[in-house]
Amino acid sequence: MKEYSLPIIIDYGADSCIPCKEMAPVLKTLNAEMQGKAIIKFVDVWKNGEAAKDFPIQVIPTQVFINADGKPYVPSDDLQIKFDMYSYKNTGEHAFTVHQGGLTEDQMRAILTDMGVDE
């Protein structure tokens, strides 16, 4: 994902999931606004299960955050949002930063700003 040189947010969910449906307009709006600044994608885990197999998806929706340099996003302490950090067992290296559950537009914008995206 490093080759994109943009922050990436992947939202794993399903068309049949109520919180996922609530987030859909936010994702659509931000995806349109952030063209060239960030990549924001939705992946339906029921239709594209293979796309989620390498990520720690336990509930939907779950968002995975990747910095522009391809490394996992490390949220600042200023954000009042709970993130889960996963490390590789064999090296202890930070592997993934995820958020489980829905996010509001304001929360998504705060995360994007924290990731270095200028609106």
From TrEMBL:
Pfam families registered for this protein in UniProt: Thioredoxin (PF00085)
Superkingdom of the organism of origin: Bacteria
GO CC annotations, alphabetized: cytosol
Any one GO molecular-function label of the UniProt entry: protein-disulfide reductase activity
CDD domains: TRX_family
Residue intervals of the Thioredoxin domain: 7-70
Keywords on record: Redox-active center
Entry's Gene Ontology BP terms: cell redox homeostasis
Family as reported in the entry's similarity comment: Belongs to the thioredoxin family.
Name assigned to this protein: Thioredoxin domain-containing protein
Organism: Desulfitobacterium hafniense (strain Y51)
Lineage, uppermost ranks: Bacteria, Bacillati, Bacillota, Clostridia, Eubacteriales
